[in-house]
Structures are given as C-alpha cells and as structure tokens.
Amino acid sequence: MDQDYERRLLRQINIQNENTMPCVAEMRRTLTPSNSPMSSPSKHGDRFIPSRAGANWSINFHRINGNLVAVGTHKGFVQIWDAAAGKKLSMLEGHTARVGALAWNADQLSSGSRDRMILQRDIRTPPLQSERRLQGHRQEVCGLKWSTDHQLLASGGNDNKLLVWNHSSLSPVQQYTEHLAAVKAIAWSPHQHGLLASGGGTADRCIRFWNTLTGQPLQCIDTGSQVCNLAWSKHANELVSTHGYSQNQILVWKYPSLTQVAKLTGHSYRVLYLAMSPDGEAIVTGAGDETLRFWNVFSKTRSTKVGVRCAGAVAVSCGRLGLGGVCIRSQPLHQDTINPIYCGPGAHGLMDQDKTSTWVCMEPRTISQKGRESRDWRMDPADAN
Description:
disordered N terminus, 2 domains, Methylamine Dehydrogenase, Chain H, five-stranded mixed β-sheet, repeat, mainly beta, 1 helix, 385 residues, cell cycle, WD40_CDC20-Fz, disordered C terminus, six-stranded mixed β-sheet, globular, 44% strand
C-alpha cells in the first residue's frame, strides 16, 4: 500500500467531531457469514498467513514497525511475521505450553504462557534467544502490559496475582494479591505516572487502582460482573472496561471519581476482547457472539459502532487503520468464537485468525451510503497488492 493511499484512508476515517463526552453508540450495520464480502474472496484478496504450530492464542503488532506481528501459539511457540509480505520471519521457542499474552516494548518482546513463565527477548539479537525468564506466577500468565514510559511490565495471572517487574530484576518489584479471581485486564494510565488499573474475573468483579511509585493500593470499585479488559482514553482521564455475565456491557468511567459516564450494550455474550485505535477515539470489541463491534467512545461526536459477523477468530488484531473497510486478505468465513484483540499504531488493518490457523487481514475504508458516513467490509482487488 503506497503512502498516498494510506493518507487518503486516514483522512476518510479520522472524522473531526465536537462533542467530548462519550455516549451510547448507534448500530450502523451488521454483516453475517452469508452476506459478508469475505465469504467470496477474489484471487487478488487471498493472502493467507498460515500457522503450522497449531491454534494461535495471542497476537500483537510491533508498536514502531507496524509490519511486524508477534503470534503466540497453542504449542508454546512465538512467531514473528511480516504482515505486509505474509512471511514468517522467525520462530521463538522457550515456552512449554500455550502463549496467551504478548507485549512489545520497542524491540523487546514479552510473552506469557500457561507454563507460568514470562520470557523477554530482543528480536534484533541473532539467534533469537530468551534474554530473561521471569518467574513469579503460580498459574497461567493471562495478561501483560508495559507502562507508558516503557520502564515497568505488569503481569496478571490465573493465580489472582498482579505483579510488576522492572528491567533489571528477575523477581517482581511489586506484588498485589487483593484480587479474588484471575487478572487478565491490565491498563497503565497515560495521564498519571505510575498509575495502574487491573480488573478481576467472575469471583472478583472489581477494578482496582494502584500507585506503583509507592506500592500503595488506591480506589476499588465493584462492577458487578467479570472484568475482561481495561483501556485508558488518551484524550480524557477516563477508562473503558468490558464485562461478562450477565449484561455483557462496555462501561466508561471517569477517574478518579469513578463515575460511570457511559454504558454500551449490544453484545449477547461476554466481551472478552478489546483494542483501542491508535488515535485514541475508537475501540473494537469481540465476544463469543461471533461479532466485532466498533465504538467511537472517546471521539468528539456521537459514538458509532459497526457490528461485523466475522470469521471464527482465535486471535484478532486491530491496527492503525482498523475501522472497517477494504478486505485485502480474506477467506470463506468460519463460525466460531472471537478471541484476543490487540491494537498497534503501525499496523495496516484488522487481523483475525480462525481454527484452520489461517489469518484474515482487512484494511479500512470509510464509504458513504445515502448521504451519511458508514463503514463496511469491501473487497478491492486494486488495493490488495
């Protein structure tokens, strides 16, 4: 994709608005397996990234080089792919069980596994070997996030622990044990240095806040349901959370008052996965109802969403332009649940992967229908090269 085309997409997608408050979104369109253009891919649009190592459990785009994608597999491998070329660059070994969490920190890649280990590797170092092995969790590592200043790594586990690591120590520098269920949801505040938020599973239901500079716990709020994901707004001191049973809702909280300023509903199953667009205005959510939904929760006008009936995804990733549009890599749809969603500032689109270990990559384009803006998945062979 050339730079002029990329700039045109950015101009089309990043619509300027005025209203600063998030509000309940409108459904624009839902695509099902039968009416999606993905169900009849052209020869120009078919570019697959197959995995030979079993089902993929996690995906994360490199934050600087958006062509690089890390993939964690069921068998414990971490693959590095060139997404633009559809080429696997390397295969990292070291884990003995599925890799369910990945986090980039420049050229350092952290991976968390069911084997309870966190491995940190520098992808520039040949041969690619583990630099550090971090041991602290007693059960599967299910969440990883680097702080906004790239100095601290937060990890959450099925052992209900939230651990904080630095660059120099092989042991956690902080350990928080207040959660009563698995800690998958983790988010560092971009507004307050050292402020960390975490969410607990079904037996816990709480969002907790921590001052990692002092090691002290801060506020805690019982949300009433499983906390699946957390993400801070870049534009306001607000936090979005996604939830499970019974309402499967998406909530927006104002910090530090923890006032609920928006409640978004539409998913019919727990909202297990969340990614935020790099411009900080939109989020994409995935659930077991086999839909992806796009929400402008932090933009300056009325929020909108698009539900997409998509391929059964073991992993989904939203890139820099991941807001609906041109399908450049596709295959017939497979119906199944949607799994992890990640977002990377340098990536070229929305990526998902099905049980056949074949990836689908879509590039976004905003189109106009009946005089108003809408978003859709479109196959455009001219842009699929």
